[in-house]
Amino acid sequence: MKANITRGDVYKPLVQYGADIGRKGTGRKHAEYIGGTIEESSVDDIVKTLLVPQKVRKVDRPVYHISLSQPPGERLTSAQWRDVIEAFLRKMGIPPDTPWIAYRHNDTPHDHVHICMSRVSLSGSLYLGQFEMLKAIQATQEIEEEFGLTRTKGLGKDRNGLTRGERRMIERTQKLSDKQLIRIQVDKALARSASMEEFTIRLGDVGIEVRLNGSKAGRISGISFSRDGFSVKGSKLGSKYSYSALSRRLPSIAEISIGYEKNLGSRTRSVRTR
After folding, report:
1. How far separated are the first and last CA of the chain, in Å rounded?
2. Which of 176, 223, 232, 273 has the most CB atoms lying inside 10 A of its own CB?
3. Measured on CA atoms in the order 147, 184, 113, 101, is the torsion positive or negative?
4. How far apart are the C-alpha atoms of 176 and 6, rounded to whole Å?
5. CA–CA separation, 116 vs 121, rounded Å?
6. How distant, in Å, are the alpha carbons of 23, 87, 141, 250, 260 from that of 190?
7. What pLDDT was estimated at residue 169?
8. Cross-sheet strand order for the sheet of 220-227
9. pTM flag (> 0.70)
10. Start and end of every MobA/VirD2-like nuclease domain (predicted)?
11. For residues 154 and 156, what is the distance between their CA atoms, to the nearest angstrom?
């Protein structure tokens, strides 16, 4: 099971997306109301309920969007999804009086749900979401074991992406390593990109620079990612992040115009993200 978490400012577009209605509704998601502390009703009524905690405590970016997805071929019943979602929210430390609603989408091979919730509970407690991605990985691992679901790679089993020392550091400090943070953002960008150009732009938006490594003859031999002074080769993140793997995933990589950085003298070519 994989989890993805984002924050926002406005509830209505997210609720409409979950219900697959409104201006951007496609009707192809076959959206199904799964459950929550909010009963299924009109979008406006759902939004009003989600906004109730704002009367108690106003905060920036109160919208919390969580998606949970299963591997292809493994499908849960609606009742199982409700149990899984409630277990996930509990393991994440989200107060039980927090307003939330969940929908399942049926438009991909991955059985998945979208949860729209407030970061403020009805009692005024603010969910800060500290170390949220680490907690989410741990929570999904525990849920897979408890519910007898297919086990996916987690922090403790990731042999390609993290060294033993990095895993121990994460367990000790409860913080993701620079390498893991980059991997998370690369995964997000890959899932939403149809070309290398779009991929690099999305990473640039979150402060990650993409570099293609090659020779003066113009042959590209590798890819690397940089963030806040930390740089790592794609192959060091794992085999699926190597240049050869990414070029198969994003075939237009060969069409990108790259300029050789002569002043570096390091045979590095840079893909501009702006």
Report:
1. 34
2. 223
3. positive
4. 17
5. 13
6. 26, 28, 23, 9, 25
7. 63
8. 230-233, 220-227, 209-214, 268-270, 259-260
9. no
10. 44-149
11. 5
Q: What is the mean pLDDT of the chain?
A: 83
pLDDT at 26 over 50: yes
SS (H, E, C) the chain: CEEEEEEECCCHHHHHHHHCCCCCCCCCCCCEEEEECCCCCCHHHHHHHHHHHHHHCCCCCCEEEEEEECCCCCCCCHHHHHHHHHHHHHHHCCCCCCCEEEEEECCCCCCEEEEEEECECCCCCECCCCCHHHHHHHHHHHHHHHHCCCCCCCCCCCCCCCCHHHHHHHHHHCCCCHHHHHHHHHHHHHHCCCCHHHHHHHHHHCCCEEEEEECCCCCEEEEEEEECCEEEEHHHHCHHHCHHHHHHHCHHHHHCCCEECHHHCCCEEECCCC
The residue to which tokens 């493994």 are assigned: 74
